[in-house]
Write a structure and sequence with these properties.
heterodimer, A: about 625 residues, alpha+beta, nine-stranded mixed beta sheet, 23 helices, B: alpha+beta, DNA Polymerase III, Chain A, domain 2, 3 domains, elongated, DNA damage (chain A), DNA mismatch repair protein MutL (chain A), DNA repair (chain A), MutL/Mlh/PMS (chain A)
Chain lengths: ~625, ~375
């Protein structure tokens, strides 16, 4: 077979295979164009999961008729200066998107240049470029993509369900919306408007508003602003409190120069920053915005630009860790407000309004049956979700009985709350319940503290501080443990020798692919040295974090803390309780115990008032 | 099976065998003890698959037979019977049960098939020698504290018993180490032990053996092969598998050139270490030894709890030295010394120290220092 030059149509279709993977990729390219065009309001409409229709309208700068004719040509762009390929300040720059889309679908662009007098339009139908014709439009651009992948049936076969394509589209729009709070977004998939985000101010408040709309109200209440800057790298954004966490990492967002990207860097940085404050297997919520000089960054790793490479990844990572840690330490004892809301939700009775609207039978003796057989009740739609129905069910009632019974004797030795203590964040201790929970009062809330969890955390923080300050005592080994790690592993471990020495581990090279461990942290006792060193080498190699040793030391500290702290069941005097509360306020991370559970919940007075129908 | 046995004999025999029976096991028959009655004796056998203990006791056997019953339950029953009671054991013919009758008490225990009871395939034990149980006990007692509990270096989870040659003749030597400290005790080689292989006796076997030796005077017959060891102590026979591994070349870690000799009263040293280490809060806190001339200062510094120092007079001729050790390791070793004086052979703060009994050359201990 002889070698032939491929036709431009074929070339475009091949390029489209890289850029346009699924409808969401089209949405991403078009919305990025809109943002690059300085749009203030972007509307995205899709139908059939984006396969039958994608329409993106913006109020950006638009294009002249000449530009319009050129923009659908391959490698035509306004965004890249040929003098400096590395100075990339826009989301797009490759000049591939429109011709790629045009080669596999029907593409219609209607645009009017800002300040121009009339609009114009062009249609590209599966690679066949039509003529420029006049069209009516206000300033801005509207792009319609229909019959996506109709020119590439093979790709069409690999589309997932309409629902999952819609989800992917909405994910793309959400990510871009998080990065550009000053732009209003509307997304309509199918018939209903699934997302409507008004423009926010471009400052931190505006950003948080936008993030709250997308990441949920919990995040809005529990987010800490983070900021860090060094060597021209700026990290900003918001990080959730450790007690606000999820089972997967889907709520962790990274934006580099306004571009949503996925990078493993974040995973390691978050693990190092949150450390032992988040339970194993749980993931904190964050939205991180990194700004670096575009020259320090390679965004051209992949045509879809979802990955980036930093020239100096170490600096970026350490600034991220530093900024998040700083914010978390500043948060001190703050625990997620959700704890309080959850509690209130559990206590809240079923709204009596629903049954009252029926025949009235609900108020007679049969009322309890309505709740117990929701499926047969015509009113089941009006009822709270199952989990909430138990509002005044037996166990909760029983808890109240116990409340009053022990409350009486426990409060006997609690002195009257001093006014000055009420102003401190955790308030003045009023009583101890079940010899386990401290109840304190602030100006506008009731705080319930788990005494064991709280004290355990305090002891643990103290032990950790001792570890860092006093140095880790090292026990020499009579027989050095030789660990075979392979050339690479042994080399990386040897490079970290100084850091490991500080943590109490002395290991040096032993032949080509092995290290000899000569001293280990005395705290670990008779430990599995081989396993420890292997874990360490793996972690260092995978660039995640050299925390294996630290983790183990902290695990020992954590066990010692558990034994050395006030147990549940110990009766505390009022001054002991107040001392504990004051120490919690002064200790970083005291809002969660060593296992990541909250150490206290705060019930706002307003919530309690709602509970009793006073509001 | 039908027999009558005196309660004391039964209790003694069960006491010897039941402690190898694990309280929780995934194989039901391992919770049982095998009873075998013949002529005028009854034998008891218990196992955890790694080791087995067999004990015999006199009994008036009417009908011989073999069966298995839950070991701990039988032991508990017999323990609660009155002293001097005559216990009658009888297998119910029609049901798979053993009836135990003593006075007015009557128990029926479920049986498991005797043929399912596991047997350690012992094989030939080519090396056999006899030694006094006091000697064997001494070997164990002075070394077992140093046995490692860390499972990945499994070959350190026991006592290494082997032949060693010294200037004054062949020795039977026991060594244990956990990588931080080492204990070594020698005995003149008993006749018959020549050519025995070096064996690592697992920790649980060591503890069982020690328990059995405590109850016995007299002598012990030891039989060894490459994979098994057997101890016959009076009427009890303990047979155990060995740890299948190579004990490290421990001789290399015993310092040869430590020339700084320090002699101290062992009891004074021990109580001083014990006192100053009270200040240490966390596990593995170092006690610092500062020796200059004839003065040894022990100190512990705990940033949280405070500090402690104690001074004791010693015999020391070398240059001043400061060296730290894990307080518990020092106490463990000092506790093994029998003489009045402990003799430390030191080198520098990073090298192992050797400790010996000044009056007894048969035992030596090595401990690695700690550094902060």
């Amino acid at each position: 077979m002889s070698i032939r030059q491929l036709s431009p149509e074929t070339i475009n279709r091949i390029a489209a295979g890289e850029v346009v993977e699924r409808p969401a990729s089209v949405v991403k390219e078009l919305v990025e164009n809109a943002i690059d065009a300085g749009a203030r309001d972007v509307e995205v409409v899709t139908a059939g999961g984006g396969l039958s229709l994608i329409r993106v309208s913006d109020d950006g700068c638009g294009m002249s008729a000449e530009d319009l004719a050129l923009c659908v040509e391959r490698h035509a762009t306004s965004k890249l200066s040929e003098e400096d390929l590395f100075d990339i300040r826009t989301l797009g720059f490759r000049g591939e998107a429109l011709p790629s889309i045009g080669s596999i679908a029907r593409l219609e662009i209607v645009t009017q240049e800002q300040g121009g007098s009339s609009g114009c339009a062009i249609i590209v139908d599966r690679g066949a470029k039509g003529p420029i014709r006049p069209a009516a439009i206000n300033s801005g651009t509207r792009i319609e993509v229909t019959d996506l992948f109709s020119a590439t049936p093979a790709r069409l076969k690999f589309m997932k369900s309409e629902r999952s394509e819609n989800l992917a589209v909405s994910d793309v729009v959400k990510r871009l919306a998080m990065a550009h709070p000053q732009v209003a977004f509307t997304l309509v998939t199918g018939e209903r408007a699934s997302l409507k985000l008004p423009a926010c101010k471009a400052d931190a408040d505006g950003l948080l508003q936008r993030l709250g709309r997308i990441m949920g109200r919990d995040f809005l209440a529990d987010a800490l602003e983070i900021a860090g800057e060094r060597d021209g790298v700026r990290v900003a954004g918001f990080a959730g409190l450790p007690t606000l966490n999820r089972g997967d990492a889907s709520q962790q967002f990274l934006f580099v120069n306004g571009r949503p990207v996925k990078d493993r860097l974040v995973v390691g940085a978050l693990r190092a920053a949150y450390g032992d404050t988040v339970p194993r297997g749980r993931h904190p919520l964050v939205a991180l915005f990194v700004d670096v000089d575009p020259r320090e960054l390679d965004v051209n790793v992949h045509p879809a630009k979802t990955e980036v490479r930093f020239r100096d990844a170490g600096t970026v990572r350490s600034i991220m860790i530093g900024a998040i840690r700083h914010a978390l330490e500043g948060a001190g004892h703050r625990a997620s407000a959700r704890g309080g809301q959850d509690t209130i939700a559990t206590l809240r009775p079923v709204e009596p309004a629903a049954p009252s609207r029926t025949t009235g039978a609900a108020w007679s003796g049969v009322s309890s049956r309505v709740a117990s057989v929701p499926s047969s009740s015509p009113l089941s739609d009006f009822e709270s979700p199952q989990g909430r129905v138990h509002g005044f069910a037996e166990p909760v009632q029983a808890a109240f009985t116990a409340f009053s019974a022990t409350g009486a004797d426990a409060s006997a030795d609690a002195e009257p709350a001093r006014a000055d203590l009420m102003d401190s964040p955790l308030g003045a201790a009023r009583a101890q319940l079940h010899e386990t929970y401290i109840v304190s009062q602030t100006r506008d809330a009731v705080v319930i503290v788990d005494q064991h969890a709280a004290h355990e955390r305090l002891v643990y923080q103290k032990l950790k501080a001792m570890l860092t300050e006093g140095g880790v005592a090292r026990q020499g080994l009579l027989i050095p443990v030789i660990v075979e790690l392979g050339e690479e592993g042994a080399e990386t471990l040897a490079e970290k020798a100084d850091e490991l020495l500080e943590l109490g581990l002395v290991a040096d090279r032993f032949g080509p692919g092995a290290v000899a461990v000569r001293e280990v942290p005395a705290l670990l006792g008779d430990t599995d040295v081989d396993g420890l060193v292997r874990d360490l080498a793996d972690e260092i190699l995978s660039e995640s974090d050299d925390s294996a040793l630290k983790t183990r030391l902290e695990a020992v500290a954590s066990r010692m803390a558990c034994h050395g702290s006030v147990r549940a069941g110990r009766r505390l005097t009022a001054s002991e309780m107040n001392a504990l509360l004051r120490e919690m306020e002064a200790t970083p991370f005291s809002g969660q115990c060593n296992h990541g559970r909250p150490t206290y919940v705060e019930l706002k007075l307003s919530d309690i008032e709602r509970l009793f129908g006073r509001r | 099976m039908r027999l009558v046995i005196e309660r004391g004999e039964l209790l003694r025999a069960l006491g010897h065998v039941t402690s190898v029976v694990e309280r929780r096991t995934t194989i039901p028959i391992l919770s049982n003890v095998l009873l075998k009655a013949s002529d005028s004796t009854i034998s008891f056998k218990a196992t955890d698959l790694e080791r087995e203990v067999i004990e015999e006791a006199p009994a008036s056997v009417e009908t011989p037979g073999t069966l298995t019953v839950p070991a701990h339950m039988l032991h508990d029953i017999v323990r609660k019977l009155p002293d001097g009671a005559q216990v009658e054991l009888q297998r119910e013919a029609e049901r798979e049960r053993l009836t135990l009758t003593a006075g007015h008490s009557r128990f029926a225990l479920q049986l498991l098939p005797a043929e399912d009871f596991p047997d350690i395939a012992v094989g030939p034990l080519p090396h056999t020698f006899e030694m006094s149980s006091a000697d064997l006990k001494r070997l164990i007692e002075k070394t077992r504290f140093a046995i490692s509990t860390e499972e990945t270096r499994y070959y350190l989870n026991g006592i290494y018993l082997h032949m060693a040659t010294r200037d004054d003749g062949a020795m039977l030597r026991a060594v244990a180490t956990d990588g931080h400290r080492l204990a070594q005790v020698d005995l003149p080689l008993p006749s018959g032990a020549e050519g025995m292989p070096g064996v690592i006796i697992p920790r649980k076997t060591v503890n069982e053996l020690h328990r059995l030796l405590e109850a016995s005077a007299g002598s012990v017959t030891v039989s060894v092969s490459d994979t098994k060891v057997r101890f016959e102590i009076g009427t009890v026979t303990l047979t155990s598998k060995l740890i299948d591994g190579t004990f490290p070349d421990y001789a290399r870690v015993i310092p040869q050139a430590n020339d700084k000799e320090l002699t101290v009263s062992n009891s004074d040293f021990m109580s001083a270490v014990d006192r100053v280490s009270t200040i240490a809060s966390e596990r593995g806190r170092a006690v610092k030894l500062n020796v200059d001339g004839n003065k040894l200062v022990l100190s512990v510094n705990n940033p949280e709890g405070g500090s402690a120092t104690e001074e004791i007079g010693v015999d020391y001729g070398a240059s001043a030295l400061e060296i730290g050790f894990n307080a518990r390791y020092l106490l463990d070793i000092a506790g093994q010394l029998e003489g009045d004086q402990a003799r430390f052979m030191l080198s520098d703060p990073g090298s192992p120290a050797m400790v010996r009994d000044s009056s007894d050359g048969s035992a030596l201990y090595v401990v690695m220092p700690m550094r902060v």
